[in-house]
Amino acid sequence: MFPEETPMNRLLLSVVACVLLAPRALADDVIQLNVGRAEHVTTEWPVKGAALTDPAVADVQVLTPTLVSVAGKAPGVTDLLLWGEDTQQRTLRVEVIQDVATLEADLATLCPGSELSVTGRGASILVTGRIARAEQAQVMHDYFEGRKITWVDGTSVAGGVQVSVQVRLAEVSRTGLRALGVNILKSGDSFFGGSVPGSATGGPIQPISIGALAGDTALGNTPFSFTSTLAVSPGVTLFAGFPKADLEYFLQALRENEYLRILAEPNLVAMSGEEARFLAGGEFPIPVVQGGGTSGGTSVTIEYKEFGISLRFKPIVLGDGAIRLRVFSEVSDLSDIGAVEIQGFQVPGIVTRNAETTVELHSGQTFALAGLLSQKSGGRASGIPLLGDLPILGPLFRSTRYTDSETELVLLCTTSVVEPLSATEIPRLPGEDYVVPSDWELFYGGKLEGESEQPPAGPAADWMVKAGLAGLVGPGGWAQHGQPAAASHARPEEMPGDTTPVQPEAPKSEGATSP
Description:
Elements lengths: L6 H15 L8 E5 L3 E5 L4 E6 L5 E7 L2 E6 L3 E9 L4 E9 L2 H11 L4 E7 L2 E8 L3 H12 L4 E7 L4 E26 L4 E4 L14 E3 L11 E3 L11 E5 L4 E18 L2 E5 L4 E16 L6 E20 L4 E21 L2 E18 L3 E18 L14 E20 L21 H6 L14 H8 L49
Parallel strand pairs: 1-7, 9-10
Antiparallel strand pairs: 2-5, 3-6, 4-5, 6-7, 8-9, 11-12, 11-16, 11-17, 11-23, 13-14, 15-16, 18-19, 19-20, 20-21, 22-23
């Protein structure tokens, strides 16, 4: 069945027919709106009704018979239909876009220093330009996601892509030691005794072991003997004995100064955002004792630990000339201090200086990552009560040791944004100038390196300096693209050793000047 024909149905059919059969709207019949903004449309005839093909994009309201308001709701495109009492009709195209000016202002606030441009038409927008700092990309992403805006990221982070890091570790350590101690041994026909005050390690300067031998009777006269060889201890600096007086003394009188200087300069280049690692040193074995399981025995496995100069860092170029650097640097040496012995294997200790931190600095700047200034003073006095306090003879019954040490350490880091070198800019490599010595230089002169080739000297060298060619190596010439090579202007007296006759110059044209 067909619906009942009414005046309203006839009007709606007429409007739909006009929309389907009407030509495309002209440029002046296009309304561009920002989301959340409104535009007014005026007509020359009273408006009876208005409708939108997509109400989700915009909203329309008839304010007066000749004034219509259109408000943008969401990005998109729709058509606005207007009709009047006497079958007047008008169609307008409505385009609702994001507020580009507001978005650019918000991005300028959120991403200072960046050069961003926002363009858009329809439901999505495009963001292009350069971001000053890498973390601003995440800020921009969170901003658009929070506002639920469909966008395309066409930005890039400004700045270089390769970073060179130079770490310099300098350490100076000074240690001063003063020690004085005396151990005395006296024996006779019916008496023996001694004075053995301790050293810095807690034991006597000269260990002396005297007692009864195992198995001797405890009755009668006990035959005391040396139970071990009386060898001179390494801590003794001066000793003497008097056989007729049955007296022997051991003296430790020492003044010692130590100086240590360490300078390490590891350099490394890495891409922005990538981690790089450098090690100049080696690995030493560490035995690890493990249980044998059900058999009850044990086994020894070997693990390796690195030592030497190590550098590990991760740079991030922020674009405004700044570099965020996470760096770990370590200098370690094998040492007998802290060494242990496991089943006959001696495992050395490690003296380590390391630093791990995150800093931000500009290209070419230097930052002090770590520093140490340490001063230590210590003394120890070991003596026999009463005897060690005597005014003159007291030093014979006591041992004194005093230590004073100073350590200065600084760790510097320099970063630079770098580019690869061309083939002509490569510096000379270490050992590249080495010359194998001749038999005469090796056996007669005792030289392990021969004489290197010398640059030209004499008149030829003077002429090259005068002509500005002192830095050239090997043959060369100059010519401009698309033009024949120019004739040489050198004179025979200016080129030593050149006997080629000079061709006569062509006559100069009028007005020409000499070069």
